[in-house]
Each structure stands twice: as C-alpha cells, then as structure tokens.
Design brief:
homodimer; mainly alpha; Neurolysin, domain 3; 2 domains; three-stranded mixed β-sheet; 3% strand
Amino acid sequence: MKPYKKLMTRYKENTILGNINGILSWDFEVIMPKKGTQQRAEQLAMLSGMLHKRSTAPEIGNLIDKIQSHAKYGDLSTIEKRNVTLMKRDYDKFVKIPVEFAQELTKHGAIATESWKKAKTKADYSIFKKDLAKMIDLKKKQAHYFDSEKDPYDVLLDYNEFGFSTKIYDKIFDEAKAGLVPIIKAIAGSPNQPDDTLILRHCPVDIQRKVIFDIAKFVQYDLEGGRIDEAVHPFTSGFFDDVRITVKYYPEDFTPAFYSSLHEAGHGLYEQNFPQEFKYQPVGQASSSAMHEGQARFIENIIGRSDEFWEFYLPRFKELTGKTFADVELKPFIHAINKVSSTKIRIHADPVTYSLHIILRYEIEKDIFADKITVDEIPSVWNNKMKDYLGIDIENDAEGCLQDTHWAWQYFGYFPTYALGSYYNAQFLSKMTQDIPNWRDEIRTGKIATIHNWLNTNIRKKGGLQDPLDMVKDITGKEFSAKYFIENTKDKYSKLYGL
Amino acid sequence: MKPYKKLMTRYKENTILGNINGILSWDFEVIMPKKGTQQRAEQLAMLSGMLHKRSTAPEIGNLIDKIQSHAKYGDLSTIEKRNVTLMKRDYDKFVKIPVEFAQELTKHGAIATESWKKAKTKADYSIFKKDLAKMIDLKKKQAHYFDSEKDPYDVLLDYNEFGFSTKIYDKIFDEAKAGLVPIIKAIAGSPNQPDDTLILRHCPVDIQRKVIFDIAKFVQYDLEGGRIDEAVHPFTSGFFDDVRITVKYYPEDFTPAFYSSLHEAGHGLYEQNFPQEFKYQPVGQASSSAMHEGQARFIENIIGRSDEFWEFYLPRFKELTGKTFADVELKPFIHAINKVSSTKIRIHADPVTYSLHIILRYEIEKDIFADKITVDEIPSVWNNKMKDYLGIDIENDAEGCLQDTHWAWQYFGYFPTYALGSYYNAQFLSKMTQDIPNWRDEIRTGKIATIHNWLNTNIRKKGGLQDPLDMVKDITGKEFSAKYFIENTKDKYSKLYGL
C-alpha cells in the first residue's frame, strides 16, 4: 500500500533525526567541553524544531487517515497495523504542540540542566529554583496542549507509560507502601545485620573499570555495538547498533558502579536486541518506559543480586580485584550486597527501600501539578517525607531534592515508571521460573544463554508490538499486579535477614 | 534591511546543520563503536542531503539579488557587505552544479577512496588508476561547471584558495625551488649532522599525553572549549566554543604526537579565537584554507621548533618524561628536533623539504589538467621528480604517488595551500618581529601572551573579513611573496648546520 510506504519513509527520516539528536545529547552529557553548552543548545533546539515540524506535518496525519480508511487496510499485517497505531498515537499528541513551544522546552532543558549541575555542586537549591519553576510551568503548558480536559499530571503519567494514571498509581503505590513499610521495619529490627566492611573497601577506578567491562560482557551487552563511559548520572543512549551506557565510579565502594552498570547494560541489551527487521519502524522500540526500566532492573537485581550470580562470580571478582576482597566469604558477602537500609540517594537505594524513593517523588510531583506545593516548598516537603518514609534526615539539598537530573531535563511523570519496572519483572519472573525451572542453577555455573534467550524471545524481540499492560498479561497469562513484587521481596529478604 | 536578516538566518541554520555534521563525523572518527557504521552513514547522508538542498535553495539567490539591488545596500556596514559577498561566492558555485553531478562526485569519492586504500595496501597503482582517471574527468567537469572559460586547474586552484592561479603558483614555487634545493644540498653535505638518538627513545603514551596537554595549554589552546583525543589521522573539528583536536601517539618517537598536536592546536586556536560577534555569519570563519594551515604551522614550526621554545621547555619536558631524556643537552636536542632530511612521505617531512613534496604534487596536477601527462604516467613522473628534487628513489608506489588520500577524495588544487601557509607565516613573522622585537626573549621565559595577542589581533580576530592576499598585504604592508620563507629558512638552517 503506497500511503503506508510513504508513512514509513517519513518515520525512518524522523528516526534518523532522532538518532542524531541522541548522539548530540550523549556527547553533551559525557564529553562535551564546558563552553560548548550554548552552541549545543542551539543545535538541539534546531533539531527538535525540525523533528517537531516533521512529526506534526499534516502529510503524516493525512497518510494515517488514508491508510486507516483504505479499502485494503485489512490486508496490512498485524505489525503494519501496529506501526500505524503507534504513529497515530504520537502524531495526535505532537500535532497539538506549537513549534516554538517545543523549541523552548528543549532549550530550557539544556539551560536548567546547567544550573542544576551548579546547584548540585554547590548544594545550593536557590541556583536551580528559578529554572525549575520555569520548567514546571512549561510542563503544565505541555500537558494542557496534550489534553486540556484532563488533570495535567494524569496527562504526563499516561504520556510516560501508556494506560497509566494517578488512579492506578495511587492503588499500586498504596499497596506497595502497605507491604513494604513493615518489611523494612522488620529488617531494621533484625539482629541479623550484614557486615558493610566486606564491601566498603578501597577499589581504584582502573580496577573497577575492568570489573565493569567483564560483567557487561557476561550479561551479553555488546561492546562492538556500544561503549561504556563515565557520566555524572549514569544513563543509556542509542539505537540498535550503537547503544552506549555510562557509569560513575566511587573508589571507596564498588557497588554503585557495579550495579548501575548492570542496570544500564540491561537497558542497552533491550535496545541492542530489537529485531533488525523492525529497524526504522515504530515497533522497533521499547513497549514503554517502565518496560525499559524493568529490563534494566532484571539484569541489575534479579540476576546481579541473586545468590547464584555471586556463587559464580565471587571467585572471578576476587581475581580481578587482587587482594582487596580475598578474605570475604560467600554468604556474608551476599548478605552485605543485599543489605537493606535507608539511604538519602535514590540511585544508591536497595531494591526494597527504592520504591519509597519513587513514591516520595510521585507524591511531590502530584502535589506540584495540583498546585498544592510551590517550588520554594520542595526541599522541606522532600526532607519531611524522607524522615517519614525512611527515617532519614537530609542536611543538604545535593543529597535531597537536587540529587536527580530528571526535573531539569523535563522528566515529570517519569519516576513512577522506575518502580513499575520492578513490579512487571516480579510478575515475569514467576513465568520465567515456570519456563526455566533450573535458571538459578544455570547462573550458578556462569551460564546466561538460556535466560538471555528467554528475555529476548519474551520481551526484547517483541519491541513495541504491544502496550505494557497487554504485554504483561500476554506473557504471564495474568493481569498486572504489584503483589508479585511484594511477595518476592518478603521471601527473599526474610531468608536473608532470618525473619 | 529585511532580506539581509533573512539571508543571515538561512546562513545560521545551515551553519548549525554543518556543526551537527561536524560532531557526528568527529564521533565517527574518534569514538564510535564498530557496528555503528551503517547507521552513522545514514545519518550523515541525510544531513548532507538537507544541507545541499538548503545551500542551493533559490531563495538564497533571490535574497542576495534583492540585497545587492536594494536602495539601502549602501547603508550596510563593511562586515555586512562582506557577508553578502561571501555567501554569493559560495552560492554561485553551488548553484552551477547539477544535483546529480554533485551526488556522482561524492559517490565516486567514496568508491575511489576504497580502491585507493586497496591499491596502497597492495602497493599496486593499477588498482586505483581507473577510478583516479574517472575522478580527474569529474573534476574537469566540475571546473567547467564553475567557469567554462577558464583553464580548469586555475578554476580549482582559485576554488581552494581565493585569488590564486597557476600564474601565481608558478612564480612562487619556481622561486622556492631555486632557493630551497641548494639549501637542502648544502645541509645534506654538512659534516654537522644531528643525533637522532636524542629523540628516538621509548616514551609511553600516558607520559606523552601529559606532555601534549601541557603544551596545548601553553600555546593557549582552550581545553574548556575543546578536547584532545586520539585518532588514526590527526585532525581538528569544531566551531567557536567547541573545537576538538586529535592526536596519534607513537611510543618510540614522541615528536609526531608532539608536533601534530601543536599543529592541530594551531588550527584550534584559529577557530576558538574568531570574534564571538561573528558567530553564525560568513565572516565568522577562516580567511582561507592556506591561512588555516598557516595558523597551524605558526604554532607547530615558528613557536614549537624555535630554539627559544626549547630553552624554556626542555627542563619541563625532562620533568614530565622522567629519566628518559635526563641526559640530553639543549643545543644538540634542538638540532635533532630540527633535523632536515629527505623522506619519501610528505607528512613525515621537515619544514624545509616539505615544500618540494608540495611543488611536485602541484606540477603533476597542473600537467594532468593540461593533458600533458596521462594517468599511466603519474608513477614514473612522480618518481623522477622525487629523485630530482630530493634525491630519493621510490621503490613502491605506496610510498610514492599512492601515499595521500587527497586525490581519491577529489582534492585537486588543495595541496598547494599546504605550502602557502608557511609562506604567509614567514611574511607575517617579519612583521611580528617589527611589532614585538623581543618575542624570542618572551618565549625563552615561557611567556606566550604577547605573541598570542598579536596573532589574535592581526589574524584570528579578523575571521573571514578579507581574502588571503588582501590580508597579507594589509597586515605586512607588502605584496605576498615567497622570499620571506626562503630567507628565514636559509637563516635558521645555516646556523643549525653551520653552513
């Protein structure tokens, strides 16, 4: 069908422009010289202007209409129809955003990120406040453009994870809070606490780098189609054959780099393993943000924090790190790796307390967009919730509301997807355990191929064929629920802490 | 004036697209993962298609016409008029080239480069010959499109360096040959030869890297507006506030990395020091290719190979390199650094013999375009000239007429600009010595500010305000001549070799 082919050509061109944007953004975050900021902002603004113009070109809307009303529409394959659906979904949103507004949003993202960086370095929220306020205003405007009838935060939540809303999140997050808070308390009260000193040992960056490259290869992250570099805030960026991950090293604690690189490798693996025949088609992308996040956490937590992974990896780890960890024994080490304790920093949080970091952000974002709290109040609200949920005192904002780059980069409504990913995963894991009953034995002997293939077949190779809630149901045969996550968490940590 | 503003907006947009292209090409050359090639080629093809379309848009021609015939044309400032002139010069050329021809030329450039690579690897000129012949035909056609009345090689020379022709080059190159050949002979016959072993010592890449960053800072290359990375063939790429240089290290000889990084830093300094108010205007670029090359060679040769630089730098160099060069003494070291000896390979040539490599290429190109020699005859003509000018026997074409990539990539008429840069420099140097009589004493004590400012004021800060021949006359008060270069060379090397 001619209009379908034309539509796909437009999609390909726009994807290429998007990829260019990706490289420029990666460069900006990872290696760009300091003074290049203004220039780069102009490049990104121009690209996003062009992309917006192309994505909202009436031609695209016309082609979609022509295809959907075409006599031969029924002859299109499921994949082809899905491509049209996905393009229509984006087009209907994009077309509502004026070009100048899209450019302003992108440009302000770069500016706000610079002031966020300064603010974080100096632990001075006032440096960032004005740019954050402007970003919030811009995001309210954007939500209003998308759908002026709905609550703006609901609009952003649905934009970030198709099918979701405050109604759904309120439900699962209340369930999670109710399930997790008692576990966390029980853990805190357990006499059986892990020994930190098995982990917190000086480990030079050069050695950590060797370990990181080693485990990235183990989980099948392809370094010929990717890179591992350093960045202030680790992220993954790329497309099919060039998917780059980043890491930040801490010489006195190898775990942040270790687990964030497994996490980013998980993201990278999703992108690297989309079917090549989906390249430059709407189905050649993740099902959703949370599905992406889930793929990252699958590698990080389900594989990387399992007893069996360390049964296999500890000897190799000892070899790579020289004398530093020579004396540690497996069981106490695994317990230390899986230590649960409240931390100030989200990205350093363990998988149990992590959800509360997200719920905190979700609640603050919800209240910001409902005009219940102002930008001035964010630090105090943040600090109060940290005290309430995790019993933690925040003394400086660099470790509080300035810790994440997301708001500077306009990602409101995005944090909840981070928790969702683990909830999806727990449900997937129950199915994978049915399909591969001996998967833990495989890991124990350093084999990852079966699990890698299961993830490829069931998730990665499906790209964007289905929306996340459909995908969860299709893979597991059950409706999405947070209960698997809560059950898993109870099981795993009860054993570890002898509860 | 409205059409002027419109024209400048177009220029700005195209420049930003060009900058994006620059970042993607830099990434491709320096850090891109292997598998990304196809994807990147698609990105670059899309950008260059867009750029070509935008540069040849009839709107640009119309705007230029409107401006030049506007009642208020006289009210434009000198800079504004110059901007229009420069845009017209490019547009008139671009617009004469049919799209299909431009595409064919680019495509054949890629094909010829592939066969050149094979030919060079196998040292078999016959593999490249056919594609070279076709490239020459295409370049004749291109020259004909540009100007059907002029000699095609004159057209290409003028295209590569505005205002130049075989008439000018014949004169300066004859003069250079007459001056240089006797010096080179005298040097070869001198009993006072330098000692290579003072330089050819194992120096690990990590240490060389420290030295490179140190000297780059010394010459005022701004690392907050640039980067230094590794690449197979060193190059400079960037724009105003983000100008990156690359270097290739050889552990057994520090001089290639040392001098090519000073060279690239010289290129970088030119770009980094264009006036900010010229940004996104045609005057915000180099006056010409040779002027750019000159700025690179000024830092590399006039500063970096001077006695005074090493008087200042040798102690610091010894400190940074540990014991490796601890025993070397200043005078013999300077002599070794300035060793003159005929080499087969242009890019390894010293500043004295270098000109003859260029003259040889110029004479061959001239005769090719005048149909005085055929493609079949190139190797023998090349080898005969190498024998005549430098006393060197070429045994295989990989070290002869196959050594450079330029012809495969369509750069005919470009080589001469490499020599020109040094000739401009020598004339500038005579003026700088009048303006700053003690500049050598400044270098000797590690001061570069006065020289840096002189180069900024007289050259870099002028951007593209003048064409190169006007610029030379304006700065020095004298017509351009090669005699300064010949005199300087005689002076410097007579002293070094005790002639």
